[in-house]
Structure formats: C-alpha cells, structure tokens
Amino acid sequence: MVCRVWFAMSTKLALLLIAVIVVILVSESSAGPVSWAACQTACNVGYVTCCVIAGGIAGTFTLVGAPAALAACSTVQGSCMAACTPLLLAPTP
What we know:
It is a single chain. This protein is an all-alpha fold. It has a domain at 32-86. Helix content is 70%, strand content 0%. The protein has 3 helices and no strands. α1 runs antiparallel to α2 (33-53). Residues 1-31 form the signal peptide. Keywords: Signal.
C-alpha cells in the first residue's frame, strides 16, 4: 500500500517536472526551429525522467502490457511534443 502511494506521488512529481521544464524552455526561446528543438529536448528529458521514476527504462517497453505509469509517460510525452509543433511556425529573428 505504501509503495503504491509513493509510486503515484512520484509519477505526479515527474509530470510536474516535465511541465515546468517545457514552460521554462518555451518562454525563454523564440527562434523558430531552435525553440522547437529545445522544446522537444525538454519533452524527451521529462519522458526519460518519468520512465525512471516509474521503474522502467525509456525505449525498452511497448504500450501493450506496460504498467499504467509507463503508458502515462508515453502519453504525456506525445502531448508535450504535439504542444511543441507550433514553435516551428514562430518567427525566426
């Protein structure tokens, strides 16, 4: 029981960390493809962190049969990367 509570809390902490990294990187850069690459990098760093906290290794599992926390990490990474896409259209100074 204690392990499940800790696991749920650590997953939420990882998701919060991902959100903070994305907000910081997106708010600090406005150079079109450069800001897009920084945003994608932040998404990937958050994904790897989330997978480690969830007890897995990024890139070594499939969504079929994966624990729910690892599946959630993949879903959040996809959403994060989709949110980065408009940065490609940002003006390049």
